[in-house]
Design a protein that fits this description.
about 150 residues; mainly alpha; globular
Length: about 150
Amino acid sequence: MKAFKDKVRDHRGQLGLNQKQLAEKAGIGFRTIVTYESGERFPQAAQLYKLAKALGVSTEYLKDDNIDDPAYGLDRMEYVEEMRKREGRKESLDLEKMLQQNQALFAGGSVSEEAKDAYFQALMKAYLECKESARQTFGRKKSATSDQ
């Protein structure tokens, strides 16, 4: 079990980067990297994504001290980030949870990456369609006086 700060430091070292180089590669401030590695701060979702991409690991791996495999969730990471950019943090967390719960479908099998991607894309599309339908059904109604 490793803490976030240790994972960042270890993977930076494996890549042969100093803190400044990692900051440049991730597009994050040098002082921010220092605070992450000292354990003073934990990144918001956008920064976590940038950091994970620069380190070549998944955001799930960095977030969860119980995950030891740096590639765990790497196949889902882009979908979660896309959802965060499109819909926001809550929706991205919802999608991440759904994708994690569906990961068991691929356990022990020989499903191609293309098939996994197609599945994740379909799940994301269905989620977005449901959200839009809910917005239309339960969203704010325009009052008759606001149209005048």
